[in-house]
């Protein structure tokens, strides 16, 4: 409906819709009530035409079936650019970390000192480092360390947090006090500082060691979150109802509380992967994380800082990969939050 | 669970049931909540008996302890802060509570009774159903957990139960989520869940409060029909006098966790012998009596942290005399099966 200026009797019609119809029904005199009715019909036809569009049909058709929290969330997520971008990035990064050989152009450990500190070229896309190793291949192999540490740590931290948090939140009383006080004590240990102290005592440090230290230091935040989430869900009538129906405590926790309490945990876990990856890089950068000859972004950045003026690409590429990885997990967490938290809709 | 198959010598857990005993016998039940501000005495000496096929209404204002007493019977009090401190609850002669060795409070020790013998219908079915699972899954859970049914069997039984509570097109709706049902249909699901294991007693905690009037009567009718069909005992917890008058056989009127009056429904409604019962009836609008103003009970229910001395109702009572503030009135027999905890019940009845 456009061309309002073209209507011959536009001034005599107060309504903005009708003049268009005059244009449609060329020259004919139409009583105003008929016009009204036609307007209604036209509008109706318009809508039904709109409804028949396949795109809308798909969306509308989905509504009644996927009305659960997860169904709703998935429908929301599919349409969110933030989610799509972060999901694509994460999928690419995970594939790289699983099969770095597929993408690498060189063996990251096959170095040639003649090629030391070359700038990016068609042979060495990201240039080479001091030892003359292909920097592009090394950066890709570094993905593996970061992603594995991030996922391993968050996996175990989430398990600890879900078990501890739901037990504390559900049983309450003395159990809650004990778990709560331990969590409080843990909470005051800063992850990086604690990591420096513990890791500097360990001589040989691999992925497992660093992961373990980060798990030991990192569970408290998430446990608190699970506990508070369980407490909120526990107050619901359906938990009482389940008890009245004779469900056992473990069953109530597994079937009735956790499915309703897990959404915020998933959100924070996704963000936490990014945080842990950054923490690993920080520890390696400080010289207490992974050790050479391991290939890790943190180590690469650490070495690169000494030649930041002469070879800035050494800092740039691992730094960029690190930032993009952390960023995509945090974006993913944000997208999940928007989709899973009904209050933010 | 031993008690699922009802054989000749019926067992409840490890205990043999007494077929001649009443279905449910609550005697001098005391429940308190220990909170930071002190001890909230929520139920102070509630007693009642429920026979087969009988409907007992527990009537009272908010905070009179009626829901708490039901939770205590089911053993689903939040402990802490809620504790059963005294009394006895017997299901067909089997005592459900035993004193805790350390604290002396009573613990519910017969979990087998839940759902298979005594089931509960909650007030707001929307919050009493788990939002993340389909209705069929939740109904089926009863059969999976208690009878070890397979997923497929459980679903079939869920559909059967939904048909039994007259949910139209049950087969299509079995995979719907609770929020996709209307209030009345949700309450039917709740009733189906309570009924699923064929319990002997159903405790309905304000089953119609969240519903509008027409649906209310449908739900009460459904409960009545099912009761006739199965011969189960029904405890109806409500503050709605109309619902009580419609379906109950007997009624217990509660105030501040205490029994004020009990008796057959006709006796209590037509010849109330307690000023509180009288006040409740005067405070609702009746289409057959024209009044310019309703007569509400003055004041508000007492703070259960500091229950008034003597008769807990005396600060709000028109008939209160000096004695009411000092002595706690015991239940006195007013007529056959009708008793009142008021010193001056005769005066109250004269007023009628």
Protein traits:
heterodimer, A: 345 residues, mainly alpha, 15 helices, 0% strand, disordered N terminus, B: alpha/beta
Give a written overview of the molecule.
The complex is a heterodimer of chains A (345) and B (352). By secondary structure, chain A is an all-alpha fold. Chain A has helices at 18-24, 32-51, 54-62, 69-78, 81-98, 100-103, 135-171, 173-187, 191-201, 207-234, 237-244, 249-261, 263-285, 297-304, 313-340. Chain A is elongated, with a radius of gyration of 30 Å. Chain B contains 12 helices and 16 strands. With 352 residues, chain B is of the alpha/beta class. In chain B, strand 13 and strand 14 form a beta hairpin. The longest helix of chain B has 18 residues, at 213-230. Chain B has helices at 66-74, 125-128, 135-147, 151-164, 170-173, 183-195, 213-230, 241-247, 265-270, 275-282, 322-326, 345-351, and strands at residues 11-12, 15-16, 24-35, 38-50, 55-59, 82-91, 94-95, 97-99, 106-108, 118-121, 201-205, 233-238, 250-255, 258-264, 332-335, 338-340. In chain B, helix 6 runs parallel beside helix 7. The mean pLDDT of chain B is 85. Chains A and B meet through helix 11 and helix 12 of A and helix 3 and helix 6 of B.
| Count of DSSP strands of chain A | 0
Structural class call of chain B reads alpha/beta
Mean pLDDT across the residues of chain B is: 85
Number of helices of chain A: 15
| Largest protein-protein interface | A-B, 23 and 31 residues
Please tell me how large the radius of gyration of chain A is. 30 Å
Number of strands of chain B: 16
| Biggest sheet details of chain B | 8 strands, mixed
Residue windows where pLDDT falls under 50 for at least 5 positions of chain B: none
Q: Which sequence of SSEs, written as H and E, runs from N to C of chain A?
A: HHHHHHHHHHHHHHH
Strand content of chain B: 15-25%
Helix content of chain A: 55-70%
Strand order of the largest sheet of chain B: 10-11-12-5-13-14-16-15
Strand content of chain A: under 5%
- Low-confidence spans of chain A: 1-66
> How does the overall form of chain B come out from the CA principal axes?
globular
What is the rounded Rg of chain B?
21 Å
Which structural class do the helices and strands of chain A define? mainly alpha
How far the N terminus sits from the C terminus of chain A, by CA atoms, comes to 32 Å
Mean pLDDT of chain A: 77
């Amino acid at each position: 409906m456009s061309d309002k200026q073209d209507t011959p009797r536009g001034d005599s019609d107060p309504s903005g819709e009708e003049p268009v119809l005059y244009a449609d029904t060329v020259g004919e005199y139409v009583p105003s009530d008929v016009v009204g009715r036609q307007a209604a019909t036209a509008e109706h036809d318009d809508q039904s035409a709109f409804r028949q569009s396949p795109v809308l049909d798909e969306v509308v058709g989905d509504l009644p079936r996927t009305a659960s929290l997860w169904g709703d969330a998935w429908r929301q997520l599919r349409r969110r650019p933030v989610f799509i971008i972060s999901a694509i990035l994460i999928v690419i990064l995970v594939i790289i970390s699983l099969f770095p050989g597929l993408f690498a152009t060189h063996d990251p450990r096959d170095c040639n000192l003649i090629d030391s500190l070359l700038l990016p070229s068609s042979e060495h896309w990201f240039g080479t480092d001091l030892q003359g190793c292909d920097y592009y291949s090394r950066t890709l192999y570094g993905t593996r360390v970061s992603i594995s540490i991030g996922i391993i740590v968050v996996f175990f931290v989430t398990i600890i947090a879900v078990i501890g948090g739901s037990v504390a939140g559900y049983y309450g009383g003395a159990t809650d006090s004990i778990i709560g006080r331990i969590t409080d004590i843990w909470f005051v240990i800063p992850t990086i500082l604690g990591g420096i102290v513990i890791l500097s005592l360990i001589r040989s440090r691999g992925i497992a060691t660093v992961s373990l230290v980060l798990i030991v230091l990192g569970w408290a935040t998430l446990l608190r979150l699970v506990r508070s989430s369980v407490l909120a869900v526990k107050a619901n009538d359906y938990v009482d109802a389940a008890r009245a129906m004779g469900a056992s405590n473990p069953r109530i926790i597994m079937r009735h509380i956790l499915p309703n309490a897990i959404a915020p945990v998933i959100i924070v876990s996704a963000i936490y992967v990014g945080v842990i990856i950054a923490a690993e890089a920080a520890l390696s950068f400080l010289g207490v994380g992974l050790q050479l000859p391991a290939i890790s972004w943190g180590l690469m950045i650490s070495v690169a800082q000494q030649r930041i003026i002469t070879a800035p690409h050494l800092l740039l590429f691992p730094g960029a990969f690190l930032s993009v990885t952390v960023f995509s997990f945090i974006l993913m967490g944000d997208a999940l939050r928007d989709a899973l938290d009904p209050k933010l809709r | 669970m031993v008690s699922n198959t009802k054989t000749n010598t019926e067992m409840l857990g490890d205990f043999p049931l007494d077929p001649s005993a009443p279905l449910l016998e609550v005697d001098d039940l005391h429940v308190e909540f220990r909170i930071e501000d002190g001890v909230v005495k929520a139920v102070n000496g509630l007693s009642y008996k429920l026979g087969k096929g009988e409907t007992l209404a527990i009537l009272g204002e908010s905070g009179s302890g009626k829901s708490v007493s039901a939770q205590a019977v089911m053993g689903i009090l939040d402990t802490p802060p809620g504790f059963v401190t005294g009394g006895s609850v017997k299901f067909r002669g089997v005592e459900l509570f035993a004193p805790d060795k350390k604290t002396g409070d009573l613990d519910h020790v017969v979990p087998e009774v839940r759902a298979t013998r005594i089931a509960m219908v909650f007030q707001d079915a929307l919050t009493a159903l788990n939002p993340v699972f389909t209705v069929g899954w939740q109904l089926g859970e009863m059969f999976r957990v208690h009878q070890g049914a397979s997923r497929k069997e459980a679903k079939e039984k869920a559909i059967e139960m939904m048909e039994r509570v007259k949910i139209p097109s049950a087969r299509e709706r079995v995979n719907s989520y609770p929020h996709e049902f209307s209030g009345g249909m949700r309450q039917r699901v709740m009733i189906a869940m309570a009924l699923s294991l064929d319990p002997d007693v159903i405790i309905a905690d304000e089953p119609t409060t969240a519903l509008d009037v027409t649906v209310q009567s449908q739900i009460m009718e459904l409960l009545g029909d099912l009761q006739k069909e199965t011969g189960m005992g029904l405890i109806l917890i409500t503050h709605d006098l109309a619902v009580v008058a419609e379906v109950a056989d007997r009624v217990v009127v509660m105030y501040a966790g205490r029994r004020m009056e009990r008796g057959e429904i006709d006796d209590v409604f037509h010849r109330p012998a307690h000023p509180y019962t009288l006040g409740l009836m005067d405070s609702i609008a009746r289409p057959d009596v024209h009044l310019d103003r309703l007569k509400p009970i003055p004041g508000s229910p007492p703070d259960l942290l500091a229950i008034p001395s003597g008769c807990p109702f005396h600060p709000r009572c028109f008939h209160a005399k000096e004695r009411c503030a000092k002595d706690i009135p015991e239940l006195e027999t007013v007529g056959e099966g009708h008793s009142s905890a008021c010193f001056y019940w005769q005066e109250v009845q004269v007023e009628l």
